[in-house]
Specification:
Keywords: Membrane, Transmembrane, Transmembrane helix. By secondary structure, the protein is α+β, with helices and mostly antiparallel strands. The protein contains 10 helices and 37 strands. Strands 1-10-9-6-7 form a 5-stranded antiparallel β-sheet. It has a 5-stranded antiparallel β-sheet with strand order 2-3-4-5-8, covered by helices on one side. A 5-stranded mixed β-sheet has the order 11-34-33-32-31. A hairpin with a 2-residue loop joins strand 4 and strand 5.
Length: 633
């Protein structure tokens, strides 16, 4: 017993018509369906029309046409990761551009690919695409000059698609095309179009491929053979008509008229035959319903795919473009990537299940760092300060070159640490100075601010600057100088260093420059002085004058800054945004580069960084130092 499965797929047929090569040019129509299962699934059945013209006929055009076809194949079937829609458009665009430049003549390419029920089309160089549907002709694509246009859609039963050169659509108006396609016969259309084309002078660049889509339903076919010995000859049942009940009655009547029972043993055979026929009928009826159910499901699946395929194609295109623009236009790259992620999340939230959607989601996850600059990290314990000195509590942390120092204000202790090796030593003990308010470090020299002045500390505490300022001040060491921010009086002073001594304070801000530092939050120096305020603004001062500075390309924006850090050796400025549990890296012109996020950063107090060691180190409330590995360098 053998069953042949029912099918509801389109029957795709085509005719290819080209003019004879002459002074008008040379054309070729191509039709290719790959044997490879994977290629067929993702690239489908390819049709292409190619035309070249340089004012002379002969082998040059023939060779060029074949080379164009080979390149089109290479581009379209080469990279199977790109969606068919964009792979086809990109292939036509690239090949048209390449050969127009190398041959210095007009190149026309029109291509269509039928992939899993969807027809993708792309036209360039003047080619066009039309559809004949419901006795009407409609333009789908019209390309002009170097422009390549593309479209996609679901064919309907009895649709006829035409891909043709510009010459073809000049010769045949829509009225003539409609007349030649009426009745849906490709043979008739072939005779009508080919006859006209071959009678034209200079028709070498006139060509078209005509593609028809029809559906046919093949019901299961039953083949049986029953042998009944003695007086009953063998009977074959080869098919069952759609009306199952009528078919069974006909079989029953046939047996009642032609079979005569002479002995009881033959009645048993007849009864067996009737049961066989009835069983087969039931099976076929079940298969018919299964086939109908399958067809309904297939239509629902196609309708569902039609509802999202354009969005998915757009998301895939945006993703590919965002990758191309990473270095050329990072801001636009991130915008396209964000749009892609938004579309993918929307489709997933609607319950869409599609292999391409799953693949795109995975690509987005892999590329968030390289394109968006967003890294979800797990900080590693760098150093537990309590292990270095009993009950040490880190209040402030500073760094210079490849060293850092941490201050415990109440215990009047300072610990200095080499970033690379974590080698540490206590450079200030509680018996060396009566109080400590702030800390600074530069080139292995550690300075502390006390109520009576500034001290350099190490083996002993040496006062280098006596107090002649107000109460609310902070210090910073840079290039052998000590800088002081007087928050109360809105001043910045510089104490110029000469060996182990320092001169008197000088107003660093330019004459007439007045600023309000009441909302001060953090500062850092790399030659310019950077000051962050509580309202999340960052001011940059160059040679005593405020310079324009604005953060660009960061999302979400910063509402509150906890700390900033850079130095003359670093390429980027680093910002601690504890509210959003992240550290942000921007270049020194304000362009966003990267952000590192983890819930632990909500408890971070301050940060320092080493691009040489590729580390971001932050201090937490529980006096532990954690490190983050940089990935944006």
């Amino acid at each position: 017993m053998k069953y042949i499965e029912a099918s509801m797929d389109f029957n795709v047929a085509s005719v290819k018509i080209t003019g004879n090569p002459d002074t008008g040019g040379w054309t070729q129509v191509h039709d290719f369906k790959p044997d490879d299962t994977e290629k067929l699934k993702v690239r489908g059945h390819l049709f292409a029309v190619i035309a070249t013209s340089d004012g002379e006929s002969g082998m040059r055009n023939v060779a060029a046409g074949r080379e164009i076809l080979a390149r089109l194949h290479e581009e379209y079937f080469g990279n199977l990761k790109t969606s068919a829609f964009y792979a086809l458009k990109d292939a036509v665009e690239k090949v048209t551009s390449e050969f127009k430049a190398s041959l210095n003549e007009n190149i026309e390419i029109a291509a269509a690919a039928f992939v899993e029920g969807v027809l993708y089309t792309a036209c360039g160089g003047g080619t066009q695409a039309e559809v004949y549907r419901n006795n009407m002709v409609a333009k789908i694509l019209i390309s002009k000059g170097d422009e390549v246009v593309s479209a996609s859609g679901y064919p309907q039963e009895k649709d006829i698609f035409l891909l043709g050169t510009s010459s073809f659509f000049k010769v045949f108006t829509d009225g003539i095309i409609k007349a030649n396609l009426e009745g849906g016969s490709l043979e008739k259309a072939n005779e009508s179009f080919a006859g006209t084309i071959h009678s034209l002078p200079d028709s070498g660049n006139c060509a078209v491929v005509i593609i028809s889509f029809t559906k046919s339903v093949t019901l299961p076919v039953l083949e049986t053979e029953e042998r009944i010995s003695n007086q009953i000859s063998s009977t074959k049942f080869t098919s069952l008509k759609p009306q199952i009940v009528d078919a069974l009655n006909k079989f029953r009547n046939r047996f009642s008229k032609n079979v005569y029972v002479k002995r009881e043993e033959f009645d048993t055979g007849r009864e067996h035959n009737r049961k066989t026929v009835f069983s087969v009928g039931i099976i076929l009826l079940i298969l018919l319903f299964v086939s109908i159910g399958f067809g309904i499901k297939q239509k629902k699946d196609k309708d569902l795919k039609a509802s999202y395929i354009e969005k998915l194609n757009q998301a895939s295109h945006n993703f590919e473009e965002s990758q191309k623009l990473i270095t050329l236009d990072p801001i636009r790259s991130r915008e396209l990537f964000a749009d892609t992620r938004s579309i993918v999340n929307e489709l997933i939230s609607k319950g869409i299940k599609d292999e391409n959607l799953v693949s795109l989601k995975a690509k987005i996850a892999e590329s968030e760092g390289s394109i968006l600059g967003e890294y979800k990290i797990t900080p590693q314990l760098y150093l537990d300060l309590a292990l270095l000195s009993n009950s040490f509590k880190g209040d402030k942390m500073v760094s210079s070159s490849e060293d850092l120092a941490v201050l415990d204000i109440n215990a009047r202790k300072v610990v200095e640490i080499v970033i690379e090796s974590k080698k540490s030593k206590v450079v200030l003990g509680p018996d060396m100075i009566k109080d400590v308010k702030d800390l600074a470090i530069y080139s292995n020299r550690v300075f502390v601010l006390s109520s009576d002045g500034v001290y350099e500390v190490g083996d002993k505490a040496n006062k280098i600057i006596s107090n002649d300022w107000g109460e609310n001040v902070l210090i910073y060491a840079y290039a052998a100088n000590i800088y002081m921010l007087d928050i109360t009086n809105n001043k910045i002073y510089r104490f110029s260093g000469a060996g182990t001594t320092f001169g008197s304070k000088q107003n660093w801000l330019g004459l007439g420059e007045n600023y309000d530092f009441a909302d001060f939050k953090s500062w850092t120096i790399d030659g310019s002085i950077w000051i962050a305020s509580n309202n999340a603004q960052i001011k940059r001062f160059v040679q005593g004058v405020r310079d324009s500075f604005e953060i660009k390309g960061l999302s979400p924006s910063i509402n509150a800054i906890n700390a900033i850090y850079t130095n003359e050796e670093l390429e980027y400025l680093y910002i601690l945004d504890s509210e959003n549990s992240r550290v942000v890296a921007i270049d020194k012109e304000g362009e966003f580069k990267a952000q590192y996020s983890d819930p632990m950063l909500k408890n971070a107090k301050t940060i320092i960084t080493s691009e040489k060691e590729k580390k971001i180190i932050f201090l937490t409330d529980d006096s532990k130092l954690y490190s983050i590995e940089m990935k944006h360098l």
